[in-house]
Design brief:
- The structure is a single chain.
- Helices cover 85% and strands 0% of the residues.
């Protein structure tokens, strides 16, 4: 696969990863703020589906395409901007994995509350707070990774 093909896939998957993550977070957060169980249940279902359909494949493609581009460009993984990007990506992943588990559990709680006509339990709201606060370092790390991708220094390439 050519460098330009990898770069295109890398950039498209980054946009999809970032956009899906930010969009899902926004819609879930706004649904939670509504306190409407039906709205929350539907939104949680869609957020979990979006994670499986879009986020998971891009989470896998990002490091594969990035490392492959580094290999083709003969850029060591120890190059500071790349090593920092990989570290931040791992930090985002460490935050994202529990978020996925929380989303699935919150989806089940919301659907059970909707089916029984009861309010969401306190457990849901505790998990929602964890979900939100785990998203802060993950989002910040991904903004930093994108910034490093854009402003990196590659010897022999004009900035």
């Amino acid at each position: 696969m050519s460098y330009l093909t990898l770069k295109t896939l890398h950039l498209l998957s980054m946009v999809l990863l970032f956009g899906t993550g930010l969009g899902s977070a926004y819609y879930k957060w706004m649904a939670d703020r509504s306190r409407q169980v039906a709205h929350i249940a539907v939104t949680n279902r869609q957020v979990v589906l979006a994670d499986w359909s879009f986020t998971t494949p891009t989470v896998i493609l990002q490091p594969i395409s990035g490392v492959a581009m580094a290999y083709l460009a003969d850029i060591p993984l120890t190059t500071p901007w790349l090593a920092i990007s990989l570290g931040l990506y791992c930090l985002a992943g460490i935050c994202w994995l529990p978020v996925v588990c929380l989303q699935i559990r919150m989806q089940k709680l919301a659907e059970a509350a909707l089916a029984s006509g009861s309010p969401l339990p306190d457990t849901y709201w505790r998990m929602a707070r964890w979900w939100f606060w785990l998203g802060v370092p993950a989002f910040t790390a991904m903004v930093a990774v994108v910034t490093l991708m854009v402003f990196k220094h590659v010897p022999g390439v004009a900035s």
